[in-house]
Structures are given as C-alpha cells and as structure tokens.
Write a structure and sequence with these properties.
Blueprint lengths: L1 E3 L4 E3 L7 E3 L4 H42 L11 H4 L2 H5 L8 H18 L6 H20 L5 H67 L5
Antiparallel strand pairs: 1-2, 2-3
Helix pairs in contact: 1-6, 4-6, 5-6
C-alpha cells in the first residue's frame, strides 16, 4: 500500500516499518530553468536593442559629419544667440550628434526663418506671390507706373520664399536626424533595462536552483 502527501511519500508493506522517501525537487529546478531561459531571452533582446542603438547613433553621426556643418564661433554670436545655452556651449564645434542637430535646427535656422517674410512660412508665401503676380499682370496691361514697384516686390517675395524653402528643408532634415538619434537613445535605455532584468532573473534562478539542490531534512 502506498500513501502520498504534499511533503513526503510514505511506503510500507504488511509487517514492515514505514520508510519515508524525500519529496520531489522538480518544482524548484523547473522554476530555476524557466528563470534562466527568461534571463537568456532578455539578454538577447538587450543585445538587439543595443545593436540598434549603436546603428542609429553611428548613422546619424556619419550623415551629419558628411554635411560639414559647424556652429558659429562664440565671438560671432549675436545678442539673441548668446542667450541660447546650446549655441554657446557648442560654439565653433562641428555638428555631429542628434542633440547638435536639434539645437542648430530650432535655435539657429528656426530663428532666422522666423525673421524672414514677417514670420510667414514657405507655404504661406505662395499666396503672396500669387497675389503680386496678378497685380503685376494687371498693372502691366494698363501700363500703370506701379508695375515697376510691383515687380520689385515680387522679386523680393520670390527671394524670401526660396530662402524659406532651403531653410525649412535643412531644418526638417536636421530634425529627422534628431528624431532618429532619439530613437537610438530610447533603444539604448531599453537595452539597459533588459540587461538589468536579465541579471535579476539570473540571480533569482540561481537561488532557486541552489535551494532545489539541497536535500530536505526530516
């Protein structure tokens, strides 16, 4: 006859004293094995995220370095620019990182764009050009003396719109690089978290396996 309990397994035969067998150790080993597997999975995930982060930062640096953009020297900054901490901190340095790109795009190019055409954008200047062209055509058709002045206004509007196009395009590209670099930073943070979680799981699995390997008394 055999009797099973949660802690011990007791076996006996008629006329013989009871013999106690140690309880199974499989749950502890199973938990340890699962912990090791999860730790390995998190470590691999961390390695992938770290690789992605390194690629993002490396690609951003390579692309920005190729553009050969340099911040204005400190002695060339005007009063407004001297009030921008990142322009002062990076004065005279080459633009090579996502943070550099964000600073240059928002506080240098962006500021100059806002000073053009009364703060209008490239898209908004299209209406100005269209209106001036229509007025110029009407003045020329009537031989109106104001045609010369309207032509000058149209030329200036066209120049400003072209400058806005170039500035907004460069600013957009730099902010795209900044966004890509930010994704790399987030991937780096995720990798650190994955490695930390893997270390905790590895420690927990080790403790579980050690406890499971100890013979139970009693």
């Amino acid at each position: 006859m055999a009797i099973f309990t949660d802690e011990h397994r007791t076996t006996s035969a008629p006329g013989e004293p009871e013999r106690t067998a140690p309880a199974t150790r499989r749950p502890g080993f199973a938990m340890g094995a699962i912990g090791l597997a999860l730790a390995a999975l998190l470590a691999m995930l961390g390695a992938v995220m770290r690789s992605n982060a390194d690629f993002a930062h490396g690609e951003v640096t390579r692309q920005l370095t190729a553009q050969r953009i340099t911040f204005k020297p400190l002695d060339a900054l005007d009063d407004r620019e001297r009030r921008v901490p990142c322009l002062v901190a990076n004065a005279g340095q080459p633009l090579t990182t996502g943070k550099h790109a964000q600073c240059y795009a928002d506080h240098f190019i962006g500021a100059h764009l806002r000073s053009l055409a009364g703060g209008m954008t490239f898209a908004e200047m299209r209406e100005v050009q269209t209106s001036l062209r229509a007025r110029l055509a009407d003045a020329q058709a009537r031989n109106d003396p104001s045609a010369a002045d309207l032509q000058r206004q149209l030329d200036e509007a066209s120049r400003q719109r072209q400058a806005l196009f170039e500035g907004e395009s460069n600013r957009g590209l730099l902010l795209t690089s900044y966004g890509f670099a930010t994704l790399g930073t987030k991937a780096d943070e995720a990798a650190n978290a994955a490695f930390a979680a893997a270390a905790v799981l590895l420690l927990a699995a080790g403790v579980s396996l050690l406890r499971a390997g100890r013979p139970r008394s009693g």
